[in-house]
Amino acid sequence: MFPYIWNKIDWNFVFKLLIGIAIGSPIGLYLLKYLSPQTTHLYVCVIIIFFSILLMRGYSNQRINNNGVKIFTGIISGTLNGLTTLGGMPVALFLLVTSIQPVIIRGSLAALFFLTDVYAFILSFFGGIVDMITIYRTIPLIIILPIGVYIGDKFFVKSKEALYRKVVFYFLILISIFGILRIIGSI
């Protein structure tokens, strides 16, 4: 995937978010020890559904596309990533609110998720949250990942911007609904 998107990554955006994520991830991991992940996960899912519906109705805001808001979004993303593993959702919503082109969204999110996952993994490993069993369970996923990337790339190249945005909104809503159902099922 990276060969296809390398020149489509907004590195300025990615680095501003990484500053915030570097601040927010340890906060999220700290809060994980004291807050109920299920309750937090539920709140995040409801908020994501709300904002996705708002965006589907046409809301956009170019004024928030500035460095301060990017860093703040990174802090929220990092905190949520450390606490609930839902850190990508606020970033995706931010990119959609500011009406950035889908190819830039895709490239920037791919770079950001790769870098933040490595960072969160290192923090989790040294924080005692991830152990060798988790690492062994992850290896098959790493092997399968390129297949999903290849399929996703074929669909993305053929998609139109309006369809892309619609699919992203429905995907965010669907993930959030599954998250809510999983939480309700565990009560």
Tell me about this structure.
The chain has helices at residues 2-5, 11-32, 37-56, 67-84, 88-97, 102-126, 132-158, 161-185. It has 187 residues and is mostly helical. It has one domain (9-185). α3 runs parallel beside α5 and α3 (37-56) packs antiparallel against α8. The longest helix has 27 residues, at 132-158. The protein starts with a helix and ends with a helix. 29% of the residues are buried. The model has no long low-confidence stretch (mean pLDDT 82).
Number of domains: 1
Beta content comes to under 5%
Secondary structure class reads: mainly alpha
Instruction: State the major sheet.
Output: none
N to C succession of SSEs: HHHHHHHH
The value of Rg in angstroms is 17 Å
Mean pLDDT: 82
Separation, N- and C-terminal Cα atoms: 39 Å
Shape by Cα distribution: globular
Helical amount: over 70%
**What's the total number of strands?**
0
Please provide a brief summary of the model.
With 187 residues, this protein is mostly helical.
Core attributes:
187 residues, 81% helix, mainly alpha, globular
Write the layout of secondary structure elements.
Layout: H1 2-5, H2 11-32, H3 37-56, H4 67-84, H5 88-97, H6 102-126, H7 132-158, H8 161-185
Helix pairs in contact: 2-4, 2-6, 3-5, 3-8, 4-5
